[in-house]
Amino acid sequence: MRLYTRTGDAGQTSVVGGRVDKDDIRVEAYGTTDEVNAFVSEAIIRMDPQRHGDMIRDLTEIQHELFDVGGDLAQAGRKRQYKVSAEMVEHLEKWIDRYNEEAPEIQRFILPGGSSLSSALHVCRVLTRRAERRVVSLAKEQETNDEVRRYLNRLSDFFFAVARAANARDGVDDVEYKRGGQVFR
Fold it and tell me: pTM of the entire structure?
């Protein structure tokens, strides 16, 4: 099987229900979730299976869920059953709560950083925020699965929580924003 088809050489790509320009907001939305997915693998390879085994497991599950997000976002016109559900959002919330318990109480805003692993997870967080913004723009113009937007919103919170937990497990302090006062009490 050839990897190239030449069908996109004129600047269009296939989505469920037809063809669109490669810079279409729908393609931007699912393309950005693909960027998140690729960078999740970057975070995983920085993990020690002994210290971060549960994180590896959870992030691998998220990679599969991000494929589901992309599939839901790729639907234009002809619709099939959406895969992203409220249950997936609730599952993320449980993970967030669990990882948040591992990190020290937040006193100030947290800058991306600390360990190499935490930094990679913060990149996942900001890429997820960008994907969420793309989905918000898409939803203004076309029908989308509302659960995708909720999922991405929660997923960015997950990456924040797991980045802080990774620092805590690795004995590295979060990088606090020092130019502001204590904002969390």
Answer: 0.91
